[in-house]
Amino acid sequence: MTKYKLTYFNFKGRAELIRYIFAYKNTEYEDVRVEFSEWPALKPSIPYGQLPVLEIDGVTYHQSLAIARYLAKQAGLIGKTDLENARIDAIIDSIDDFISAFPWTEPDENLKKQKQDEYIKNNAPRLLEGLAKSLGDKSYFVGDSVTWADFHWDCISEGLEHFDPNFAKEHANLQALKKRVRSIPTIATWLEKRPFTEH
Ligand SMILES: N[C@@H](CCC(=O)N[C@@H](CS)C(=O)NCC(=O)O)C(=O)O
């Protein structure tokens, strides 16, 4: 049996999509959650110095989306054609553009909140209108069955709700998609049993 060891911090962030894909197929893996206090000592030993990383049978792989894309393929969570996969990747990349530029860190707590609020106000409408239009009245972003793009939307929007509780609330179809993902039995089980973290 393939041995998987996922290493990330003790929050959902960029690892939750990977955890969802493992949960979807009930795949066993080690879910290592590094404390911030442990990180400076660990960082030099991690390829490219960032988390998450996934060890597969002792070999380390980095970049959350490269890892998720590989696991999604194994789990049957990709499109049926190359063009469907291109559309899935485009959804994933649109979400990633948004979160990569998000002002996560800022030493001044007041300024941080202000910057995050402004970022969401200025940038979320374009992303959300695009996603809502891509989804339309379909059940999933691409094709007629769930893919890792649908999982990514649920994971990332949950994280952003921590910063803005009304995030995407005006888009009924995007909210319905979250419910659809969360009602998949193996995902529902993961949501019940996963360790509590604020975001
Ligand atoms: N594009 C990378 C980004 C990785 C990344 O930004 N990781 C952050 C946590 S979300 C990190 O390791 N921060 C600690 C550091 O850079 O020292 C991915 O998706 O894996």
TrEMBL record:
UniProt cross-references to CDD domains, sorted A to Z: GST_N_Sigma_like
EC number: 2.5.1.18
Domain GST N-terminal: 2-79
UniProt-recorded Gene Ontology molecular function terms: glutathione transferase activity
Keyword presence, Cell inner membrane: no
Domain GST C-terminal, chain residue ranges per copy: 81-199
Sections of the chain in a coiled coil: none
Record keywords: Transferase
Any single GO BP term: glutathione metabolic process
Catalytically driven reaction(s): RX + glutathione = an S-substituted glutathione + a halide anion + H(+)
Record-given protein name: glutathione transferase
Gene: HPGDS
